[in-house]
Design brief:
Length: 562
């Protein structure tokens, strides 16, 4: 005699019983539990949804979370009122409940009979084939997905593109919540419902709000530690800095920098940078910000120039670029200056970049800066947010993403207007940095950002130049940064200037950047490196100066050690 039945066999028997039960059994039931499966899960039960029927109303709600909910999580339910042909969506927060009501969808279906009391509904939406297997002949309609409209009967299975995603069954952990009408719900539209849910779930930190980056602002005076949540201007007003406390979120979150920028008087394409200042060592970049760039560690080039704070030392880490971006030619401020048939100028530049890989540097006490190089009294306006998107509804471990993040070098001279030199060392030398790989390192990746500058025909901005990366004395990678899609961004450049041949300056291909865009990092796989001291060298055939014009390179490198 068999005394024990496995959980999987029990689920299979429940599902089989549901598929072959008569219509009258469904009519007698008031609760239904649907097993839900994810893509590539091989039908492993990943979650379940509980359905409660009361007369012509069907209440659909998720099972209680097993674990601590993430910030902004809300209890949700959908009510299908088949007597009124309407859907009611509700989300409940501790102090308020929102409700949205909309008509039930009408979708054109193809039906396929599958024998007595069983029909398959088939349709295609957004190139996805949807199949609903329904038990017919029932007095009531029951489905956990009423947004697809009325399917007369009880849903047995749901398939999308040939994979089963849902089926009627039982779940040993199901806890049926009592059905109660919400008291004094706030009536909103379905679109507002989506926005409210997103606003609660996505953790948004406003870092800079309509901040002006221009020439002529007084330098902030720092006495002691930088205060929290105060926007402070440096480098003539072209650099804004803020000390902020960022939340420590579980590892399943993804993090994005979201930047809005427009001209406030400056007509030109300028280099911009969003960065974080590491403060784990004795010396930090803040010393150069609060005092003078010459107070930073000095790299002496063969050209007899000094380069301040650009490379890692035993006691100093350079800034880490979160986003390298470039302003367009005068968007918004100069939109009325030039009119061209067939072109409508955009209102702002918008940049959004995934910075999840740098999240270990973006929690707790953090110094974040933003810079746009310019000598204009109006300059530019910027608004910057850090947005964190959850990958789960429950809190998980707050743990480092990497064993170590090692900033190596940054020649982007965000203190340019305070006297920090351009990265011209490549004209007579290469850039060499030493670093240490810790014990237990399994894999090392170099995150590299590079853009060439020199705005005349022979300058490095408009000429392809290979970047050679030399690891421990061996030439390991050669990469030539180049963007040939700059003409795509014409609508963001109202005063870029037209050339005799019909092109405009913003159309021209450039060394890894376009006006109005962000430059994406390139990743080099360094594999498993033995613990101890190593070197990385960057070599670029930088062009010679011409008159008062120079070429230079903004390069930055960060190591991720797994």
């Amino acid at each position: 005699m068999i005394k024990k039945i496995s959980k999987n066999l029990m689920l299979a028997l429940f599902a089989l019983a549901a598929l072959h039960a008569g219509a009258q059994n469904y009519d007698k039931s008031n609760t239904f539990v649907y097993n839900m499966y994810g893509y590539d899960s091989h039908h492993v039960d990943t979650s379940f949804r509980t359905i409660t029927r009361i007369d012509d109303r069907v209440y659909s709600q998720s099972a209680p979370l097993e674990g601590t909910p993430i910030p902004g999580y809300s209890a949700t339910r959908t009510i299908a009122d088949y007597a009124m042909d309407s859907l009611i969506y509700e989300i409940a927060y501790p102090n308020e409940v929102y409700r949205a009501v909309m008509p039930m969808s009408t979708i054109k279906w193809d039906t396929v009979s599958m024998g007595k009391n069983k029909v398959k509904y088939v349709t295609s939406i957004n190139s996805n084939k949807l199949e609903f297997v329904v038990a017919t002949g029932t007095r009531y309609t029951v489905t956990p997905m009423p947004s697809y409209g009325r399917l007369d009967g009880v849903l047995l299975e749901f398939w999308r593109n040939g994979q089963k995603l849902m089926e009627l069954g039982k779940h040993s952990k199901a806890k049926l919540a009592p059905v109660a009408e919400a008291k004094n719900p706030i009536r909103i539209s379905p679109r507002e419902m989506d926005r409210i849910q997103t606003d609660h779930l996505v953790q948004t930190t406003r870092i800079f709000d309509d901040v002006q980056l221009c020439w002529g602002k007084e330098k902030a005076v720092v006495k002691g530690e930088l205060p929290f949540d105060s926007v402070m201007h440096f480098a003539g007003g072209t650099l804004a800095l803020k000390r902020i406390n960022l939340p420590q979120l579980p590892a399943h979150y993804q993090h994005y920098m979201e930047l809005h920028q427009h001209s406030n008087g400056d007509a030109y394409d300028r280099t911009g940078c969003v960065f974080v200042i590491p403060h784990r060592m004795k010396n930090t970049f803040l010393e150069g910000v609060a005092q003078h760039p010459d107070s930073l560690p000095i790299l002496k080039g063969r050209d007899d120039k000094t380069y301040q704070g650009v490379v890692r030392t035993e006691t100093y880490e350079p800034i880490v670029e979160l986003m390298r971006f470039f302003t367009s030619f005068g968007v918004r401020h100069f939109n009325d200056r030039v009119k061209i048939d067939g072109l409508e100028w955009r209102d702002e530049n918008y940049y959004k970049q995934d910075v999840t890989e740098l999240s270990d540097l973006l929690s707790g006490d953090v110094w974040i800066g933003i810079w746009i190089g310019n000598y204009d009294g109006g300059g530019h306006k910027v608004t910057l947010d850090l947005k964190s998107y959850p990958g789960d509804y429950v809190m998980g471990e707050v743990m480092p993403r990497y064993r170590e993040i090692i900033p190596l070098f940054t020649t982007t001279n965000v203190l340019e207007m305070a006297g920090q030199n351009y990265g011209q060392m490549f004209g007579s030398d290469s850039l060499k940095v030493e670093f240490d790989i810790p014990e237990g390192a399994e894999h090392v990746t170099l995150r590299y950002i590079t853009t060439g500058h020199g705005g005349w025909g022979g300058g490095d901005e408009f000429n392809q130049k290979p970047n050679t990366l030399i690891i421990d004395g061996k030439s390991s990678f050669v990469y030539t940064p180049w963007r040939c899609d700059c003409g795509r961004y014409r609508e963001w450049n109202p005063v870029s200037g037209n050339a005799w041949d019909g092109l405009t300056s913003s159309d021209y291909s450039r060394s890894g950047w376009c006006p109005g865009t962000a430059t994406q990092p390139t990743y080099f796989d360094l594999g498993k490196m033995v613990p101890g001291r190593h070197t990385v060298t960057v070599a670029i055939p930088q062009g010679d100066p011409m008159g008062g014009s120079i070429s230079h390179w903004c390069v930055s490198g960060v190591l991720f050690v797994e």
